[in-house]
Amino acid sequence: MKFLYSAILMTFFTGGICAAQTKHASDTANNKLIDEVVVTGQFKPQSIQNSVYKVRTISREAIENRSASNLLTVLNTELGVSFANDLTLGETNIELMGMSGRSVKILIDGIPVFDRDATRQSLSQIDINSIERIEIIEGPVSVMYGTDALAGVVNIITKSSTYNESFSVRARILEETVGNEYSPFANEGVHNEYVGVDWSNQNWSVGGSASRNNFGGWKGSNTGRALAWQPKDQWLLSGNAGYRTAKQKTTYRFDYVNEDIYTPGNYTEVNNFIDKHYLTNRHNHSLNTDWSLNEKLSINGALSYQDYSRKTTTETTDLETGEVSLTVGDGLQDLAKFNALFFRSTAQYKLNNYVNTQVGLELQNENTSGDRINGSPTITNFAAFLSSEIKPLSWAIIRPGLRFLHNSVYDAPPVIPSLNTKFKLNEQFDLRLSYARGFRSPALRELYFEFVDANHTIYGNENLKAEHSDSFNGYLSYLNTFESNNNLSISLGGFYNRYDNFIDYAIDPNNPAITTYVNINNFKTTGVTLENKWNYKNLQAGLGFSYIGRYNDESEISDAANEFSWTPEINSTLLYSFPKYGANINLYYKFYGKRPGFELVEDEIRATAIESFSNADITINKKIKSNITISAGVRNIFNTININSTATTSTDAHATSISSIPMSYGRSFFLGLNYQLNTYTK
């Protein structure tokens, strides 16, 4: 009922504005399959059809149509992408094509985002309102992007100025229920407010924005003060400034994140309660510059400094006196600090119409300190890389690459090679084949972490080696434009990845009470994917299928375990626009198949399984005049909350014996309002 009151209020706010016919984004969707330009992994921006990589994109229009409050909602229905929730820490980690987040490189405008450990918690700390588009490459891109890019790369490309004589103001409000819980504009529910301002002329641009995300948590079946999903409050601020001439463009960007994850505790027998806060402060400074010296030579540079801290505060409140004091105990108070300096410079030279070459240098320095860190360690990575795109024939592109490495702490692989090829079989069919060697440096926390509390004893391992992988990928793509408003694209792909020195949790054989990090012998993933997209007039439809196998190391000690456990996945999107009414309706569906596995319990191999489930969202967007859009919809239509698992043990640091895995807080309803004013002086 409270949500209904807010809906009436927001509808009343826009009720006096007359509807007008507007050109919807779907009007141009039919051209995007051909004309779309990508930058990730490229020597220079170019058509997605000409890239040697299989690049998947999520456009600004697609992001806006989701009417989401965070990036995870947008990625969640992508093929091969899934998320795991840690309700203890209030964080979420990504999985891409069968590999966890530690093997996925997260970039913002081509610059790596630093995380405090192997979990990609930074994905939930990116302002979705600042995103222009998302580009995803599956498989290793380690020659260009270095460590962590084993499973693939997710490049978040932010909105940038068009350098027109313009001034724009953007504002957004989104209100969403959390299950059956909601309170208007604060506390229970999801509440997102955003405002952004940009100004530019032909040479200069300046912009800034502020966003607040408030999640009130969710009680679920818990009693007392304890919650199943912890409340989270975020402030995200950003600013940017740019300067452009005919031959160069330089942009500075600043991002700040303040996050408070609050864990309320139940009343105790001694008449008090204990609450915990996880406080994050993240400052990101980045500078990108591009020079086009002449028609053949261009130079790019990127420099960033990231300062990240996470503070754990535990407080005891006395119910009789109201006194609040810091709670004493191992791991209850902590401040961890992380700093990362990154520099990359590349030069691209066009030798002739058949050969383009890129050379680059990269430096990354990371250091950390804290009560749970052994000392104040620093790791420095230095790399030089070389790559060429060779066109021996009009229908063939061959791109070999080498990356030379040096690490200050361990013996990094001296050379990382890759070979990507693209063959244009005819006007409709393209074939991409690739081999790449990938690697992942041990994270600082994997090397130097020390954590002891009532439930965990975890130690880092300074003797860890770098992971490395061999990856083979192949994609056959079909694209046919039957007429200007009717086209179809199909992509059939397969991959095989073998990882050596794979880093994972393990029980210390000398002390079963201690969990540590070790290099296991190997890990493998393999699978096939099928993606289909069809645009016909006002209809956009997509259907995808994947079948991914994950390696079972138990198969090395027993014939009872299969070498791979296979999981199917299906996703579908459907968008229909009504240009006459400035409206569209969007349906998103994803099926996660049963995930079998094996575990070793008391010297016996047992089969396990995580049950299948489905997720679906629906969104309706309606333009009110040319600069106001109202959105409404339902997320998690099938009300999936927990899924059953038959696993009884785990070596994960935050895992216990489990019977269910948390996926969501249930079905939710949302209503959003977007406002954008553009003023052009010329």
Automatic annotation (TrEMBL):
Q: Indicate the segments forming the TonB-dependent receptor-like beta-barrel domain, all copies.
A: 238-637
Q: Per its record, what are the GO molecular function terms?
A: siderophore uptake transmembrane transporter activity
What are the record keywords, sorted? Cell outer membrane, Membrane, Receptor, Signal, TonB box, Transmembrane, Transmembrane beta strand, Transport
Any one Pfam family here would be: Plug
Subcellular localization is given as: Cell outer membrane
GO BP terms in the entry = siderophore transmembrane transport
Q: Which residues form a coiled coil?
A: none
Domain TonB-dependent receptor plug as annotated: residue spans: 49-153
Keyword Transport included in the entry's annotation: yes
Signal among keywords: yes
InterPro entries, per database record: Beta-barrel_TonB, Beta-barrel_TonB_sf, Plug_dom, Plug_dom_sf, TonB-dep_rcpt-like
What this protein is called in its record is TonB-dependent receptor
